[in-house]
Amino acid sequence: MVRFLILLLFPLLFNGLGPGDKEYKNPVFEPILADPTVVKADDGWFYAYGTQDDWGDGKGSRLIPIVRSKDLVHWDYVKEAFTEKPTWKQKGGIWAPDVVKVNGKYHMYYAYSTWGDVNPGVGLAIADSPAGPFVDQGKLFNSQDVEVPNSIDPFYLEVDDKKYVFWGSFSDKPMQGTYGVELSADGKSIPDLSKKFKIAAGDFEAVMIQKKGEYYYFLGSKESCCEFEKSKYHIRMGRSKSIFGPFVDQDGKDLRERGTGTVLLHSNDVYAGPGHNSRWVTDNAGNDWLLYHAILKTEPRVSTGANRRVLMLDKLTWKNSWPEISNTEPSLENRPSPLFK
Question: Total structural domains in the chain?
Answer without folding.
Answer: 1
